[in-house]
Structures are given as C-alpha cells and as structure tokens.
Amino acid sequence: MAGRLLLVCRLLVRDLRRRPTEIILLLLAISAATGTLTLGLALSGVADRPYQQTRATTAGPDVVAEPVGGGPESLATLTPLATEAGVTAHSGPFPLAFLRLTSRGRTVNAVVEGRDQAPAALDQPAVTSGTWVRPGGVVVERTFAEALGVRLGDPVSIGGHALRVVGTAVTAARPAYPRVDWHEPGSILSDSGGLVWVDRGQIGAVAGTQPLSYTLNLRFADPRASTTFRHQIRDGIAMTSWTAIAETDGEVVAKARKAMLVGSWLLTALAVASVAGIVAARVIGQRRRLGLLKAVGAGPAMVAVVHLVEYLVIGLAAAGIGLAVGWFAAPALTSPGAGLVGSVGAHPPALTTVLVATALALVIAVAAALGPVIRAATTDTVHALADAAAPPRRRRWRVWLSRRLPTALMIGVRINARRPRRARLAMVNTLITTTTLAAVLMLEAQDKQVDLGGAQLSDPENTRTFQAAFIVAGVLCVLALINAVVNTWTAVLDARQPLAVARTLGATPGQAAMGLALAQLLPALPGVVVGIPAGIELYESISPPNILHPPGFWFLALGLGILLAISTLTTVPAMLAARRPVADTLRSVAA
C-alpha cells in the first residue's frame, strides 16, 4: 500500500510540474465557479447583518406607528400608544409632511420629518457627513442624497422654501430611498420618494397649508410583540414592524444575490465543460503513459486513482482560490447600500460557505474527469501503447453526404466525427455563453431608473443587479474564451495527421485551415440558435411580470458577434497548423 501511495504521489508531482499551463487553466475554470458562488452566498448576509448594525447604531425602534389620516386628530390617536402595556420606550410623535423637493432642476417626492436638535431615545439617525438638523438646514438620507447628487452646502427647495443641505444620515425606522412610502395626505397608496429631516420648528412653515401627519417610534418589553406581523392597520393607525423595514432594505441586494447564484450555476456548467475538455485532452496526451502503467502491472483501479487524485488536488486548490477571491471581492458588491451602515466582506467566510464552495469545486473536478478517467482505465493496453485515435463510426448516409460537401466543410465534419465528445463540449460552451449574454441583454433593456413624481433618478436595486450580472458575464466570457482556445488547440494537435493526409490528396492549406475553423463553428451554431431563446426564458423565469424586451437586432448582433469571435479565435491557429509542411507532420506522427 505504501509503495502504491508513493507511486501516486510521484506521478502527481510529475504531472503538475510538466503541464503548468493546463493546471492553470483547470484552476481558473474551477475557481471562477467557486468564486462566483462565494459572492452569491456572501450576499445572503447583507439583508440582515448591516440592518442590525444600523438598528443598534441609531437605537432603532421595534414598531413605527403612523396614522392613516392627517391633522390634529391624527396626533390624538397616536398619544395613547406610548403608554400602552408592554411599551418600554418611545420617541415622538414627530411631525411628517409629504412634499416635493427641488434640487438641480429636478422635482421629486420627499417625506419631510421634523426633528429636535437634541438626540432622541429611539430612532436617532446616524449622521454620516455634516451635522444634524438646525434652523434653515436640511439633512438628507444618504441614499437619497447620492441619487440626487447633492452635497453639503447645496441649496434645495422644499414646498417652495429654500433650505441648505447641512448633513446626510441613515436610519433604521424607515426604509431607504426610494421605498420610504411617500403618499398623498390621507391616502394609503404609497409611491417612491426620499427621506429628509428638518428642524421641528420649521416643518409647519415648510408644509404650508398641507395638514401634518405624525410618526411614533415604540419599543416593547417582549421582542415577539414586534415580530408577529410586518404591516397592520389598527384603529386607523398603520403599524410597521422593524422586520418589514429590514426586509425592504435587504431588497437592494436581493436581485443581485439571485443573479450571482444563477450565474454561479451557469459558470458551474461551463466549468464542467471546460474541465472535461482539458481533462480529455490530457488523458489523450497521457495515453502512452497509461499503456506503460498497465504493461508493468497497474490495474484499472490504480490507473483511475492516479488520474482522479490529480484532479481532486486541483479541485481543492481551486476551492481555496475561489473562496479567497470571492470573499475579498465581496465588499465591492456586498455593500448594503448607502442607506445602512456596516459591511459584510470584513467578516471571514462562514463554515457553510466554505463547505459548499469546496464541495462544488470537488464535484466539478470529479464530474468532468470521471468519464475520461473511466475510459482511460478500461482502454486496452495495446491500444493505449499504440496511441491511435478511434476511427469515426461510418454510416452510409454520412459517407454519401460528405462526398457532396465542399472540401473545407467535409474536413470540418470529419474532424468532429473523429472526436464527437469534443464537438458536444464546444456546443455546450457556446450554449451557456449565449444564454448568459442573452439574459444580460434582457436585463440591460429594463428601466434602471425610478419615477419620483415626474423626475427619474437611479434605482440602487437595479444598479446593483446589473453590477452582479456584469461580473458574471465578464467571468463567463473569459472562461468561454479559454474554452474556445483550448478546444481549438486540442483539435489542431489531434487533427495534424488527418489534415496532412487530406493535403496529400489535394486539399490546399487554405481549405485545411478553413476545415479546422469550421470544426469549431459547426457545433457553435446550434449553441447560438438555442442559447438566445434560452437566455430570454431564463430572465423571464426569475423576473417579475411586465418586463421589457430589447429590439431583435440586439440578439442578432449577439449571435453574429459570438460566431465571429469563435471564427477569429480558431482561424489563426488553424492557419498556422495548415501551413506546416506535410512531410514534417507525417514524419513526426510516425515517429
């Protein structure tokens, strides 16, 4: 047993040192999938942890109460809530006005809350820049300020009254922009808007003739009293639990998390195809060594172990790389948004994330390597030592058809017929790439802005989702590019002898090069044709109804662009291979 283990370790080290390029490609393919999955799992903590930090920093309430109506009678309905049984602390009632704010030529909805300059026992917004409210000044919720593009000292107009921005702040008592539940006085239908705070003594003048509403913050002795509901209306008072606010704030990254998780599974499928192609090429290249192992007494189990251990080690290393890259990149994407404080990326990966990412890397390695390894282990010793490719399965209709094809096309068809698995992997590569890019085009066609009563401002949720989709698409395109290069170069090396024979029978170097390029284009074509509708269907299945569809020429350009990229990637190595002298090729193969 010790001797076999030593042999496996020596062969492993030798393979890792002799083929560094292939090892790097394998690590890159598996790390891409595990890194994207790590990002998706990291986003799952954004919806909860930063809100809890914001709630602790700002002394966030358990329940926020707001009367449905307005005017002095609404204030009278709130007052008894502060002395109800089980209430241990409260702040307010604070006056509210649902007005229009004008800044930089844009007029938008704004929920204006009057506050005291002294700190409150509950819901004291955390100032992130500038100072707290003072006469003549306005404090803008940080996400709203970023969308408006306002800075400290900028003038704004609220209800026709000129004020100056003196600070920005965050709160846990109301959802961040644009979901602050702006509504017309007396209406329960909410609209998008932003939140600002002004001095309590000025809100009456700012509101003008509009009747004021009020908001009351409550804390209960029993934590369950605020978690048994999200929203409820009781005696004309709308009660909102902190859990509902946390869930609303978490929606900023909810779509991004879904995009990352869906992207990680697409990358997993592409990584399996990529690793399978590289493994198949490696197994073909190691055929002679496989025959030597069998000739000296190694059985099928030993041969399988020799190959599988190598890919398991690569899978473990790729899991570590993917976890590290995904987690260090997490702060750029997993920021909870300007409406909350705290971060996620600063924390170490959870044990669940480590286990899931490691399991995914090992599954990719084993799933991609198992087929080629089993075929290698069961290959006849004499056949392995001969290192000859299996002849294509001949069918009368295929022979009849190939005779009538142009020379270049016939060469491409016969190259794929010799290696049908490689052709299928090329089709899967193109299919997954096209599906992902078509889904990204669907996302790009959606409206990324939100209507705040006539003016359009950026929506943080849509912006974050597009960032996540762009990351997935970028990583996937790089991986697909590597796959195309590996498949082409493998085909070039494997088709040297058939191309040399074809040239001795009259094919020109140009026809041979075109045949190699067509061998990659032929399986890519159905991948593009099926991938575009698959990408549209994928986006529609994970998106809400009433989505927008881009113009048809976007998808036409996408399909032609992918085919053009494949043609470009395959033509250069094909021309180099086709220009090699026939005598040299046949002499090297015979040797």
Automatic annotation (TrEMBL):
Entry annotated with the keyword Methyltransferase: no
Tell me where it resides: Cell membrane
Show the stretches that span the lipid bilayer.
Answer: 23-47, 265-284, 305-330, 350-370, 425-445, 465-492, 513-533, 553-578
Q: What is its main location?
A: membrane
Task: State the membrane topology.
Answer: Multi-pass membrane protein
Query: Which UniProt key words apply to this protein?
Result: Cell membrane, Membrane, Transmembrane, Transmembrane helix
InterPro entries for this protein:
ABC3_permease_C (IPR003838), Membrane_comp_ABC_pdt (IPR038766)
Q: Where is the ABC3 transporter permease C-terminal domain?
A: 263-379, 471-578
Q: Which PANTHER family match?
A: BLL1001 PROTEIN, MEMBRANE COMPONENT OF PREDICTED ABC SUPERFAMILY METABOLITE UPTAKE TRANSPORTER
Q: What is this protein called?
A: ABC3 transporter permease C-terminal domain-containing protein
* Taxonomic source organism: Rugosimonospora acidiphila
